[in-house]
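If your schedule permits, I should be very grateful for your opinion on a structural question. Kindly check, if you would, that the fold set down in the tokens agrees with what the sequence suggests. Thank you for your consideration; the sequence and its tokens are set out here:
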Amino acid sequence: MPVEIERKFLVTGDAWRAAAKRSEAMVQGYLAGPPAARCSVRVRIAGEAAYLNIKSATAGVVRDEYEYAIPLADARRMLDTLAGNVVAKRRHYVEVDGHLFEIDEFEGDNAGLIVAELELEAEDAPFPRPAWLGREVSTLVRYYNLNLAVHPYAHWSTAEREAQDA
């Protein structure tokens, strides 16, 4: 069974930008999700590639995940006709000491939010902590893309924004 082990962190400052090896625009929309299902189903366009992704709707570092390549035209149609709110972002790829950080710089109603994700082989695997890697938010569901689609960063209360800095 495919399992994703992913840590998620807020990003501080801009020092990571100089180390970005490449970047690509992404847009993703959700076709199904909680509370009606125990998983989220999303379609994502990343550059000129498209994917259908199914991820368990559990909070935490380890979650079941299935991802399948689909035709780009199908993905565009699904986003246009089936998806609810979408999340747009630019993903930057930054390698640090042999570890690949995917840094999502959100756009639209989520502009201003920058999150680094790191996939690991094991929950307790060691990884580098560059100075720009801020507070871990792996278990805070408000930072999950599904939640950003329905409750964007621009609509967060003062309390939610202050909790980001805690």
